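Holo prediction — iron/sulfur cluster.
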Amino acid sequence: MTNDPSIAFQVKALDENRPNGKEPVLGGKLRSKAVWVDESLCIGCTYCSCVATNTFVMEKVNGRARAIRQDGDKTDLIQEAIDTCPVNCIEWVRFEDLQELRIKLASKPIRPLGLPPLR
Ligand code: SF4
């Protein structure tokens, strides 16, 4: 049996114009959800930043974790980082909700944890 190359022109193309939640602006091919740290609850243990090193960093002023990018690590690794959090302050959220979460966080009083500066 031989493959007929003309079959490639008979297959219906996917509807690329329909939103599917994986558009580049929403995170691209990696995932359709964003990761968010509620810094007001973070206790600065650094676990998440040691697991998903391309996603979480310890913010220098208050010593709390922050997700600095959404495409830095595989989803499984980010989930592992989420699972290590002792206070459950990391969660998956919709990309569209990130801006509102940032605004809400900015309105909360967040005190420095008083930890020594990170190397
Ligand atoms: S694991 Fe949780 S508590 Fe620890 S630094 Fe990360 S966000 Fe903060």
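READOUT: The helical segments are 47-51, 75-84, 98-106.
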